[in-house]
User: Fold this.
Amino acid sequence: MTCPRHDFHIHTKYLGCANETMEVPEIIKVCEGLGVTTLAITDHLNTLDKLPLHAPIKTDIRNLDTEIEVYFGVELNFLGCDQGFAFSREIKEEYGFQLAIGGIHGTYLDEYDLKKIVDIQHRHHLKTCADPLVQVLVHPYWFGKGEFDRKGWPWFDSMAAVPEAYARELAQASKDTGTAIEINACANLTNRAYGEEYQKGYFDYLSILADEGATFCVGSDAHDIGRLEAITAAWDMVERLNLPEDRIWRPEGEPAAGRKP
Assistant:
């Protein structure tokens, strides 16, 4: 099959995570050239004080003239280990967010313990799936290399420490809750910090999720305009996994801009 040309994980300059190249109109222009048909702008909401920074994103989307279906979303991060997200139904309605993607973005540990690192990740993956306000679990088993380097830890460059049972349990959570598991192009598939061993193990990990019936989402996770093209790696992965189109998630409802579904 051919993967639907979606990208549901894109950042902008407004939250300070992506660089100044990530202007909404320029994002759309590049995505049009790549053949993207449906996308979501999903900048970070780590703490409530950042909420006002999402308002200009919504304005930029409304001012677009494009054939691409564009949704206004948000990416959530846990407030702390085993805590919740800075998000609620009231916030979603007040700001008009059409979707939420989210997940764990750190280890939450001060001392190196590989088993604990993996266990904490898995626990938060399941917690994300259990949240009814979150549609997509982002970049499972992505880690920021900077955190490992600062702490002097061995780099997480292999999926060998992740039990197969964890993949199967996550796939079941995906089926039970309808939460999509993200195939992330920049964080996982084309991240230069990861070597061949990690990439082979990651394909095997995704294959288990696929065999168990999980639903997937594709996203570039681009923070620079030149990285939007990485989405093609996620599309290629969908084809390698031989996933049917009905297992590739997309938002419900009408887009905030662009053609109507």
In short: The radius of gyration is 17 Å. The CA atoms of residues 100 and 133 lie 7 Å apart.
